Amino acid sequence: MPIETTPTFVTEPAADAQFVAVPFGRDLAPPADLPLPVDALLAHYEAKGEPGEVVEVPVALGSGIRRVLLYGVGGGSAADLRKAGASVARKVKGGARVWIRVPETADAAALAEGALLASYTFRIGAVRTPPDIVFVGGDEEALRRGETVARATALARDLVNTPSSIKSPAWLADQARQVAASAGLGFREDTALDGFGGIRAVGQGSAYPPRLVELTYAPEGATRHVVLVGKGITFDTGGLSLKPEEGMKTMKTDMAGGAAVIAVMGALATAGVPVRVTGLVACAENAFSGSAQRPGDVITQYGGRTVEVLNTDAEGRLVLADALAYADAELAPDVLIDIATLTGAAKIALGLRLGALYATDEPLAAALLAAGEATGDRLWRMPLIDDYRADLDSDIADLANVDRRMSGSAGSVAAALFLREFTGGRPWAHLDVAGPARSTADDGEITKGGTGFGVRLLLGYLASLS
Ligand code: BES
Ligand code: MN
Ligand code: ZN
């Protein structure tokens, strides 16, 4: 159920509009033509125009009532406007039509994005009627840009929120196929997985076989090539290294990186991204069964390196390693970026709002950090500490998938160091989004459940390239 609201864009509200939202802020006085003692009202509610503040007042409209929402926009930054849009949307009950007046000089894209993302819901069963949002004034092109980003983010949320009883690897690949068809992308899926020992080993315990999905976008005249790799574990039991119940119950989220890649790919053309982009999603279910891989098994990753699987719950790095090595060997990327709910350690380090960024290339790191600040999908740079690389040595294979002493320290760094082995020295960034991929509550434009983290970030980054 992606965003079901279809926003419309007008220059003036209808004369009989019953629900009108009007901005005010630190540098923006509310319009003088409201039939209200606005100053007294705002003083009464101690409203200062901060983003998130909404003061509702009823006004006579003929023999009926018009509700006016005075909404704060703060200093008018993109973050302020996302929050402002979200606060207005949250005041609207399903089915109601709200007319949101767009502040004149504001970043209309951010306002639209916030309003649309906050009105996202995911339901299986009784459907909620979405609000009907009309933007009044503002740059229509910018508003549509915001809508594009919001719709892509909502698609990623839908994919994450879908239960794993539905969401098999084949289902996820099929969603990618549909996105490709409607966005004019190339689509390929590999189910034979010859040479992809990591994806096969992780998927071998499941009744639902694994696959590698490849989506391609090649705008005319593009020279640079970015490859995005997403972790698409449709459910992570931990495998034979079984997770406890508490850690397992949210593991339908473990394909959030793959969901972000699919959603970003689907929006590239509309967003006018000027570079070539390939999206790879390594889809598998990490199941617990008699055919599951065992702790101590040795697998051969794409390209021939062997890995001793000491912990079957460190499965994400095994599927990503194959995809990264494949990208390096076959796709000649100028930039490689992977996104994955990879470690609980990243979640502990940075919490639920920030993604962990690892990078082997300074300009790439700087561009991603900047895109994160601009779009709201914020990142924090983490270190690739060479001294820890030896912890991943194996007694019998080229590498172990976890520290064989099981020290458990710096788990997110260790996972990143493991992945780096498969990137062929190319400019590479790794986003560990185990924390921010899922939210425990509605907050601003974020909704409870899957957040679509990474979609806004990657679209912002890719749109900034030339
Ligand atoms: N999918 C999990 C990581 C995860 C944890 C994502 C919490 C979201 C929330 C990953 O496959 C995993 O199980 N990682 C292990 C690695 C460990 C065995 C080295 C972890 O973090 O415990
Ligand atoms: Mn796991
Ligand atoms: Zn996992």
UniProtKB/TrEMBL annotation:
The Swiss-Prot or TrEMBL record annotates one GO molecular function as:
aminopeptidase activity
Q: Which residues form the active site?
A: 243, 317
Q: What's the Enzyme Commission number for this chain?
A: 3.4.11.1, 3.4.11.10
Q: Which Pfam families match?
A: Peptidase_M17, Peptidase_M17_N
What are the protein's UniProt keywords? Aminopeptidase, Cytoplasm, Hydrolase, Manganese, Metal-binding, Protease
According to the record, how does the cofactor bind?
A: Binds 2 manganese ions per subunit.
Which major enzyme category is it? hydrolase
Keyword Magnesium: yes or no? no
The record's annotation in HAMAP family points to: Cytosol_peptidase_M17
| Described function | Presumably involved in the processing and regular turnover of intracellular proteins. Catalyzes the removal of unsubstituted N-terminal amino acids from various peptides.
Name used for this protein in its record: Probable cytosol aminopeptidase
The organism named in the record is Microtetraspora fusca
Upper classification of the source organism reads: Bacteria, Bacillati, Actinomycetota, Actinomycetes, Streptosporangiales
The encoding gene is pepA
